[in-house]
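Something for you to look into today, if you have time. Just paste the record in under my message, thanks.
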Amino acid sequence: MARLTIKGISKSFGATYAVRDVSLDVEDGELVCLLGPSGSGKSTLLRMIGGFERPTAGSILIDAKDVTSLPPEKRPTGMVFQSHALWTHMDVFNNIAFGLKLRRLPKAEIKERVEQALALVGLADYGRRITTQLSGGQQQRVALARSLVLEPKILLLDEPFASLDQHLRERLREEVRDIQQRLGITTLFVTHGQDEALALADRIVVLRDGYTEQIAPPDRIYREPETEFVAGFIGSMNFIRTTVRNGISQHAAFSLPVPVADGEIVLAIRPEALSLVAAKEMGAGIVHRSIDFGTHKIVDVDLNDGTRMKAMTSSNSDWTMGTSVEPVAAAFRAFRGNRLVHESVAVPTQENNRVFGHA
C-alpha cells in the first residue's frame, strides 16, 4: 500500500507547542497506534498527516513523495473522526458515495464500490437507511466505509470508538483490525486507551506533552518501558521511591541490588512480578483487600511507610484483610529523572508460576 515517513514534525499555536520534533517511519501495511493522555499531541499529529493542520516545522512523506504542503483532498489518505461526521439528510449509500461523485466516476462504478465497501464493514443491506436510524456502532462503520471506498493509501483513525460503550468498542476494534489486515492498508490509530493500543497495534508511539516517550511493539512497551512515564501509563505499575547507597536500595521492604550511582531512584514493579509471603511477626506490609477477577486476584498491600501496592496472585489464593506479609519482587526496573537506569532479570517464584500457569 504505502510507506509513511515523518521527519522532525513540530506544531505550535503561538508560543505553545502541541507537537515537538516527532519523527516516525510507518511501514507498508503496518498499524501504528498514537497513544497518550489528553493534550499529548496525538490528534494534532494525525491531523497534520491528513493535511488538516500545517506543520510549523518538519516534513511528511508518503511513498517518498513530500505531501507536507498538500491539502487533505490532494493526499492519498482517508480519515475517520470520532464524531462520525455523517450527513443526516443523506442515506447511507449517498454518504459513502459522496467522495466518488466528486471524482466524477461513472454511476455503475460508484454503485459497485459502495456496495463492496458496505459488505466490507458488515452493512451490506443498509444502503437506503437514513443515518439517524443507525446505532452508534453502525454509524461508525459507515464512516469507515466512506473512507475505505476512496481506496486511500493510508487510513487515519482519530479515536473512532471513544463515544461507544466498552463491549461495542472491543467488537469494532477487532473488526477494524481484521479489515486492516485483509486490505493490507497502512493505518495510524489515535487512542488514549492503553488496552485498545495493546490489542490493535503492530507498534505503539507513546506521546507526552508533544514529545515522543517511546516507540516499540506492544509487548516491549509493556515489559520494557524506557521511561517512568511509560511505565506508569501502560498497565498497572507499583512505584517505590527510595534511595540507593553502595548499590543497594534502602527501602525497608525492598532491599534490592541496584548497581547505579548513589541517590534517589524510583523502583517500578508490575503486580504480576510481586509475590507475597506471610510474615510470622510484623512484616513490611498488611493486606488491605483482595479483589477476585475470576482468572486471578489483585491484592492491595499497605506498606509500613504508607505506600499501597498491588500484587497479582492466583485465583485460589486466600489473602485476608489484616494479614501481615512480606512482598517479594521477582523483577523490577529503576528510573531516575524519568529515565531507565537499571532493569533486573526476572526471577521465577512459586507464586507467579501459579499465576501464569508455568511448570
User: Anything to note?
Assistant: DSSP finds nine helices and 20 strands in the chain. The chain has two domains: 4-223, 236-356.
